[in-house]
Design a protein that fits this description.
The protein is of the alpha/beta class. The protein is 40% helix and 16% strand. The chain contains 14 helices and 17 strands. The strands form five sheets. The protein has a seven-stranded mixed β-sheet, sandwiched between helices. A four-stranded antiparallel β-sheet has the order 13-14-17-16, covered by helices on one side. A two-stranded antiparallel ribbon has the order 1-2. The protein starts with 5 loop residues before the first helix and ends with a helix. The structure holds 4'-deoxy-4'-aminopyridoxal-5'-phosphate. 4'-deoxy-4'-aminopyridoxal-5'-phosphate (PMP) binds next to helix 4.
């Protein structure tokens, strides 16, 4: 039996002690950002109190210590993703920047007019807009993998979209709006069969399931620190070494060069530093490493199983609310419960339930193309993390019943 010691784990999160409108906080907006354990918060005190220094410029103790902690995190991330080589881990500001890096560095070098890029209707705007911007400049075509009524990608249609001009598939591992878990290993296999590359947006997968980029056979994989119990301002791009090596740099500046000359061509650092121009978010990277160790100590299998129980409990709980419709009913689903209620605006539900101390998200979840297929411009979304409990979900469901009763 898989059970998490939730009471113990909750004590790691100072924020869970706070009240909102005089009620205990029940935080169910984890798909937007997760809360941060004190072990991660303490990294900041330690770093700024003891060894704050710029990295890679060494020759003094503080800089050496900061560099060791920063580069040590690269190894932590490598292990977290089961990448083959720590040089395949590039630190970015987040998933959004990681995707923009691939678009601008790989995309500019590999895409031209007439080429085709496949994205899905499930994508977050951050995996749509960078491709639209680039397509506007380079003239390639974006084709869209359709989604069925349950929020599941149509794999037969996916296979049919490939032509000899398909260069890239850009798809999320888990949908933030509906929670759908996509069969990314199978999708990678099909992409590779057609000589295309695959970029996987793992922003919503990394907090909930063990990731193995080699087993998936991902070419690129991106995630954000702040959704996996870490800080904002930092994220990761995994890229297969030979792809990163062949890619031109994106941003120029310090740290990413070997030699700079005004007379002969400037030469660039080896990967991954070629893609890390300027002083990075040093404390954030180190804190991300601490977050990933916190997650690994508990175990993603345990966390995923716990969240599946929470999802089931919540799904059963809201089933009794008349006129409530769940969006996203994929058989393989992460801890995301997206719903609308007849006669009650999502925004109003969100505002009123906040008065009860319950934080959920309302809106389009940066997935307007997906919601538009369902004739919606907003849903309510409750999303779960390791520290949530069935008791909290009971309070959420009772609160939702009350709020809906008030609104109609
Ligand atoms: N992709 C998905 C699936 C997401 O859920 C998010 C965050 N909501 C992002 C990308 C963007 O992540 P970030 O804002 O941290 O760059």
């Amino acid at each position: 039996d898989l059970t998490l010691d939730v009471a113990k784990l909750r004590r790691d999160f100072p924020i869970l002690d706070r009240e909102v409108h005089g009620k205990p906080l029940i935080y169910l907006d984890n798909a937007a950002t997760s809360q941060t354990p004190r072990q991660v918060i303490e990294v900041y005190d330690d770093y700024y109190g003891r060894y704050n220094a710029n990295i890679h410029r060494g020759l003094h103790t503080l800089s050496d210590e900061a560099t060791a902690a920063f580069e040590g995190t690269r190894e932590t991330v490598r292990a977290f993703l089961n990448a083959a080589d720590h040089r395949e881990i590039v630190f970015t500001r987040g998933t959004t920047e990681a995707i923009n890096l691939v678009a601008n560095a790989w995309g500019r070098a590999n895409l031209k007019a007439g080429d085709e890029v496949l994205i899905s209707r499930l994508e977050h705007h951050s995996n749509i807009v960078p491709w639209q911007l680039l397509a506007g400049e380079l003239g390639f075509t974006i084709k869209v993998i359709p989604v069925d009524e349950r929020g599941v990608l149509d794999l037969a249609a996916y296979r049919d979209l490939f032509t000899e001009r398909t260069r890239l598939v850009a798809v999320n591992h888990v949908s933030n709006a509906f929670g759908t878990v996509n069969p990314v290993a199978e999708m990678a296999r099909v992409a590779h069969e057609h000589g295309a590359r695959i970029l996987i947006d793992g922003a919503q997968a990394a907090p909930h399931q063990a990731i193995d980029v080699q087993a998936i056979d991902a070419d690129f994989y991106a995630f954000s620190g702040h959704k996996v119990y870490g800080p904002t301002g930092v994220g990761v791009l995994y890229g297969r070494a030979e792809l990163l090596e062949a890619m031109p740099p994106w941003q120029g500046g310090g740290e990413m060069i070997k030699t700079v000359s005004l007379e002969v061509p400037t030469t660039f650092a080896d990967i991954p530093h070629k893609f890390e121009a300027g002083t990075p978010a040093i404390a954030e990277v180190i804190a991300l490493g601490r977050a990933l160790r916190w997650v690994s100590d508990i175990g993603l299998d345990l966390i995923g199983a716990w969240e599946a129980r929470l999802l089931e409990h919540a799904t059963e709980g809201v089933a009794g609310i008349e006129g409530l419709r769940i969006l996203g009913t994929a058989p393989d689903k992460a801890g995301v419960l997206s719903f609308v209620v007849d006669g009650a605006h999502s925004q109003d539900i969100g505002l009123l339930i906040d008065q009860l101390g319950v934080a959920i998200r309302t809106g389009h979840h940066c997935a307007q193309p997906l919601l538009s297929q369902f004739g919606l411009d907003a849903t309510c979304r409750a999303s779960f993390a390791a520290y949530n409990t069935p008791e909290e979900i009971d309070v959420f469901v009772e609160g939702l019943e009350r709020v809906v009763g008030m609104l109609r």
